[in-house]
Request: fold
Amino acid sequence: MEPILSSGDRILVQKRAAYCVGDILVFDHEGSFLVHRLCYEIEGKCYFMGDNKSSVEAIEEKDILGKVVLINRNNIWYGVEKNGDYERIKSMLKLIKNKR
Reply:
């Protein structure tokens, strides 16, 4: 999920009644937790893709554990609640990464 999420980041996940295309979600995939962005939904199947991947994964809605609402990097929490925040947060995290 680079550049939004990097190895070592911590996330806060919240279960929701519904999810929107573009949301970053955590789901159970064959016993492992995966974090990907929701691309689209058709007939109860959700299709996900990581931000730096080209393949799409299909999972059932029941396997969604929740939406990523906060990201902690270097002990600073960033909100990802609104789709409009995505570009702002991406820019902020890119700045942090470049300062390393």
